[in-house]
Automatic annotation (TrEMBL):
TM ranges: 115-135, 142-163, 192-212
UniProt organism field: Ornithinibacillus hominis
Protein's UniProt name: Zinc metallopeptidase
A UniProt-annotated Pfam family: Zn_peptidase_2
Superkingdom of this protein's organism: Bacteria
Keywords: Membrane, Transmembrane, Transmembrane helix
InterPro entries for this protein: Zn_peptidase_2
Length: 223
């Protein structure tokens, strides 16, 4: 099991490197539409009737792009906001995909939002409970509670996968539908979006394997 977790960690590192590499490559390819990320985001939003969703410049640096559903704001990093590359368009469109999901009450996004408080509690308390359970000889109950809490965090990550893949699907479809990328640019867009999705797959795999490991330890102590 430890070996599998190490492999998953290796996959996660490779996925993160792939995201950065594909973004850098995509950043060097100017989009034929010559539109910037903020222009693409605004156009897709308006085409969906989402004029109430604002777009702001993120101050967190590169690859800090995200959609804030509570404020209805898409925050784009400067390379994406001002850039007119394939990478900039891809990332901007992906974040708009989340805004569209929010507006359409996409079921998996709704579920993810409901899981947020449980996932936060699980990710904060589970490590302490699990460590305490491993230290004390009679700590099986602590391990069991820790596993339950950790399961909430893992479930959140699992639910995140279809949310991210669906946002990427919506992004690519809107870029094509609105003529913001040419046929020969579709492959580059796919590479950027797929690399980003792979990071979520890797992190989820790590979490699932860790959960299985804790369950096996718990069952071992029970026996």
């Amino acid at each position: 099991m430890d070996f599998l977790i190490l492999i998953a960690f290796g996959l996660a590192l490779w996925a993160q490197s792939s995201v950065q590499g594909n973004f850098k490559k995509g950043s060097k390819i100017k989009a034929s539409s010559n539109m910037t990320g903020v222009e693409v985001a605004r156009r897709i939003l308006d085409s969906e009737g989402l004029s109430d969703v604002r777009i702001e410049l993120s101050k967190r640096g590169t690859l800090s792009d995200h959609y804030d559903p509570t404020a209805k704001v898409i925050r784009l990093s400067e390379p994406v906001y001002r850039g007119n590359s394939i990478a900039s368009l891809s990332v901007a469109a992906h974040e708009v995909g989340h805004a569209i999901q929010h507006a359409n009450h996409y079921s998996m996004l709704v579920l993810r939002h409901k899981l947020v408080p449980f996932a936060n509690i699980g990710s904060q308390l589970a490590p302490f409970l699990l460590i305490a359970g491993f230290i004390f000889t009679q700590g099986s109950m602590l391990i069991g509670i820790g596993i339950i809490l950790f399961s909430a965090a893992v479930l959140f990550q699992i639910v995140t996968l279809p949310v991210e893949f669906d946002a990427s699907r919506r992004a690519k479809n809107k870029l094509i539908e609105l003529g913001m990328i040419a046929n020969q640019e579709e492959r580059g867009v796919s590479k950027v979006l797929n690399a980003a999705a792979l990071t979520y797959v890797a992190s989820t795999l790590i979490a699932v394997l860790e959960l299985i490991k804790y369950i096996m330890i718990f069952r071992g102590r029970q026996n």
